[in-house]
Amino acid sequence: MANGWPLPDTTAQAQTAKDPIIIQFSHVVGADTAKGKAALKFKELAEARTAGRVRVEVYPDSTLYKDREELQALQIGAVQMLATSLSKLATVGGSDFEVFDLPFLFKDHAAFRAAVDGPVGATLLRRLEPSGLQGLAFWDNGFKVFTANRPLLSPADFRGIKIRIQSSRILVSQMKALGADVSIHPMANVYEALRSGQLDGQENVPTNIYSQHLHDVQSHLSVTRHGYLAYVVLVNRQFWNQLPYDIREALRLALHEATQYANSIAEAENQRALELLKASGKLTVHEPTAQMLALWRETLAPVYRQASAWIDPAMLAAIRASSAGAR
Ligand code: LMR
Hints:
single chain; five-stranded mixed beta sheet
């Protein structure tokens, strides 16, 4: 039992193809995104490697749970697996998970990977354990852009508008530095909140914008690449530890391959989504000049100072040191 919720019996008879162990893998974005495709790749590999003794059911697009609910569901064992954004993990793993939200922290995907593939990543994953969670891998997504129902060409354009963010104090500081109002919404509610005018804009990666049809309710997109979105793949720790050893190792291998797949497609998927957004003709895409980007950086620089109140400076220094060596 985990918090009173019965976990599936994985120890005895439930290990045959006739009576497989079920892994419910919940996530909050479309099946046609890098995360959605990687979850399906994991399913394919996991089922093949365990010869059907495990069945993976993937539930995309918040069909089972929304952002915060899915973490609670994992903790009580109502689902077994998630791939949750780093921003949302501060509630269960501590505030250092937010460090990845610092504006303009990574210059490219390799810089992010260099940070999480070493001791920083391992340290963060360990911090999930007291919450009953086992972090198994980091999956890339990519760089965020802004959309709104007005052009966002410079920081001054944010004054007085309401922007959706994920639940992260650093993202609150970021939007305050730009002079915007913030509102934390689960991914599943963003489209409707933008459509109804409850929100004016949001930040996300192109794949999420395209797959959630946010371009139908937004008229402008600025390719600021100001922040990075990535995930931890995590399981209920008790469920994981109760798995028979051979099954757990087969799943580990399947996840390793699915992780390589996820990280190999993320950048191209976002590039393709950006092209599709441009081709849709539904919103105007703005590419900031180097001069404008310098202004964004300058405006957002105070976020680092503010975040030092709750982010461990050693963690940030370690990330910077690993990223600097990335190529
Ligand atoms: C968001 O809420 O914007 C993202 O975390 C969604 C996701 O999982 O990519």
